[in-house]
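Researcher: Structure prediction, please.
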Amino acid sequence: MELNEKKDSWEPAWRYCLQRVERPLVRNSTNTTNATAQTPQTTQQVHVEVKTDGTYTVKEYDFESNGKNLYARAFVPDGKGRVPLVIFSHGLGANVEHEEEVQKTLAKAGIAVFSLEFAGGSSSSSPMSEGLTTEMSVLTEVQNLKDAIRIANGMEYVDPQKIYLMGSSQGGLVTALTAEEVTNIAGLFLFYPAFSLPDDIRSSFPKLDEVPETFNLLGTKIGKKYITDIYDMDAYANLDKLGIPVHIYHGKDDYIVPLTASQKAMKRLKDARLTTLEDTGHALTPEQQAQIGLEIADEIYNGMK
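Model: Predicted structure follows.
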């Protein structure tokens, strides 16, 4: 699989937003820690003060996954050598601009961000990656993310020991499922991850033979494959196999993926933290994104807690 850096620039015309609520970031945090999942500390770590006044360069790439050409965009901190990398997975119908303020804040803090557009994953009228939305499923996106992780190890600006995954909504579910199958990931950051999706699908379609060939889901035309690929899935079953730290952010007023989905996941995860956002639904404001980006940078530099 070859990664090609694109030389031309583009200006995306479509921005994902299900809901925008101009409210401050208010939260409650819950931790679950299994002592066997922690590494003993023999020396006191020097605390790194996070600053977000750095500059970064935008790089564009294309690479092949599952026979499709995929688009990716990276924010690369200037003059930093090898740096930590966060690989971002967008939500259903979205693109690389999803949660963009989080991405920019991380880059200004000296952390590279690689954001891919899934094959058939964007409902934009001008998607950057190949593939139809009716051909896309959670499992095709898992394969896309696995391929992105493999190529990330070879990027000249990446510290391969400090690769983190970050995902929103469906991208959060894809991120967790992928992390269950790969070994070189330092931690996960999930925004309102769609752990409830398989249960919601079965509730909507009690019988698999009743699933139509295509239908609309939150504004995205999807196909029967989307349903069949996860119909028998238990999204929580293997979360206890994750031996890396996980930080989940979830809105208290989310009625698309309810907070209870993340609360249920917390009971399975060994080393996890749930931050509940007050007065927040299934989206983050730019102000919330910037604050969360700062918190994630702090955890990457000073340890996830």
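Model: The chain is about 25% helix and 25% strand.
Researcher: Thanks, that helps.
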